[in-house]
């Protein structure tokens, strides 16, 4: 069973996602939207992020890293120098960062590239830290 991973995003990222999906023109060429489209979901005890990165050599052109509970995918799509009549591919550096869910285990992350899709699996501890109320002590009198 899979469920959609819910987490807070920045208002700017939400606006750019909305613009990308509803705009009559493609915003990638203007530099306003990320070059990497992603989907994420929870699957049993793992957070899964899938990113579309076709035409890239994952050994040379993609880096996946984690810092401060943020997962970052960086890469570069290089352009071949050929005479072209039409140019709709996007070339250059790209970067996409998402926050990891609570309970993520960054030291156990795996990444797999197949048919132009990068899949990153982040194991999570099945249990979330319990919520608890902290008593407040009174000082003096």
Radius of gyration: 20 Å
Task: Please tell me what the overall shape is.
Answer: elongated
Number of strands: 8
Mean pLDDT comes to 78
Largest sheet: spatial strand order: 1-2-3-8-7
Distance N terminus to C terminus?
56 Å
* Strand residues, percent: 35-45%
Question: Care to describe what's here?
Answer:
Mean pLDDT is 78; it is low at 23-34. The longest helix is centred in the N-terminal third of the chain and has 12 residues, at 11-22. This protein has helices spanning 11-22, 58-61, and strands at 2-4, 37-43, 46-52, 62-67, 70-77, 92-99, 110-114, 117-123. The N and C termini lie far apart (56 Å). It is elongated, with a radius of gyration of 20 Å. The strands form two sheets. The protein has a five-stranded antiparallel beta sheet with strand order 1-2-3-8-7, with no helix packed on it. The protein has a three-stranded antiparallel beta sheet with strand order 4-5-6. The chain has 141 residues and is mainly β. It is built from two helices and eight strands; from the N terminus they run E-H-E-E-H-E-E-E-E-E.
Q: Keyphrases for this structure?
A:
single chain, 141 residues, mainly beta, 5-stranded antiparallel sheet, 2 helices
Structure at a glance:
This protein is mainly β and 141 residues long. It has helices at residues 11-22, 58-61, and strands at 2-4, 37-43, 46-52, 62-67, 70-77, 92-99, 110-114, 117-123. Helix content is 11%, strand content 36%.
